[in-house]
Amino acid sequence: MSLDDRLLTCLDERLNARLSERKAACLYRARATVAINSAGMQTVNGQALLNFCSNDYLGLSQHPQVIKAMQEATRVAGVGSGAAHLVSGHSEYHHQLELALARITGRPRALLFSTGYMANLGFITALVGKGEQVLGDKLNHASIVDACQLAAAKNGRKSFLRYRHNDLDHCEALLKKAPPHSLVITDGIFSMDGDLAPLRELAALTHQYNAVLAVDDAHGFGVLGENGGGCLQALGLSAEQVPVYMGTLGKAVGGFGAFVAGSEALIETLIQFARPYIYTTALPPSVAAANLAALQIIEQQPNLRQQLHTNIAHFKHALQPVLENNPSAQLLPSVTAIQPLVLGDQSRVMQLAAALKNQGFWVGAIRPPTVPAGTARLRITLSAAHSPAQIDALVHALGIVLE
Ligand code: PMP
After folding, report:
1. Phi, psi angles (nearest 5°) of residue 46
2. Ligand 1 and 379: CB distance under 6 A
3. Which of 23, 111, 154, 388 is paired with 304 by a 20 to 30 Å CA distance?
4. pLDDT digit string (tens) for 150-173?
């Protein structure tokens, strides 16, 4: 056996031990291969399933106008953007999309990022300077946590502090001791719980302590607000009150990518200093064109948002008798498209998700470390693309598998 072979075997042995540990703890993750995706119905590993785990909240990933816009832009501009934005990758499609994002969010400017993960890494590391702190909600999305840790690696361990979930008193206690200009960052809608951050109160607190509030609205952009402009639009919070707004394009918009919206100075700073913006290839122009077409639909068709909210209310109402019969399953108090059913134990969650799959329904099985230990859950997501009959069928199946 050569030295290379011995090193490889040794690495594989260690990795296999780690993988076995994960399997034994019922935390092993596997991908499903999806073939067809239409109006909530998907073919997964050859089986037709009704999809209740996608973030395509308005069904726009399948909209004919969006598909057409993408095809047309590919014909004109080709497939890849060929370079980073600051080199030659910034096309007219990207430019128009940024203008539309600024308009719809009511901010002076917007800047596209290739993913939400990168947007969070980019703006958080660019904004937290030497001697400054970043404070985050304990249940913030993993991409925010990673970004804060990266900022802290530059600025010292104590520069990233977490406050208890939606706990304004705890946030204020940390702010009292924080240096001025600290960044407070929260999910707008929490991705695994579906609840909303107390944004009005956080805006007032950050103002009082001379800090800066940033909101990740991955799950609110497109579905909240009068024209889909997100959680800040719904609450009437201005760019002065919440200077940094981040949204994603892979969820309600049905496309791919993300953006940060805010002042001229904020966006220019990110262009200069946000490394995940600077050192990566720009989104394909066709993706920008598809996102733009989806935004037009979001603005022009409020009925899609209304349908989503009707579906959410329908699901919550229909599930009541099932919950009464199964007190060990706890539906979290969410009014958004994310409806988590907490069961606690990860093996039970896996077993229930498999049983639902057998009945033709695909729901997310969420386990630690994505959620805290002991709070494993089924994450059910609703879409405007679901029909009331499909929602009733899921509720019926939940009633059967929970017994
Ligand atoms: N923030 C939140 C709150 C999210 O839920 C997600 C996606 N799961 C992201 C950021 C990352 O966005 P993207 O998938 O575009 O990287």
Report:
1. 85, -5
2. no
3. 111
4. 999 877 767 899 999 999 999 999
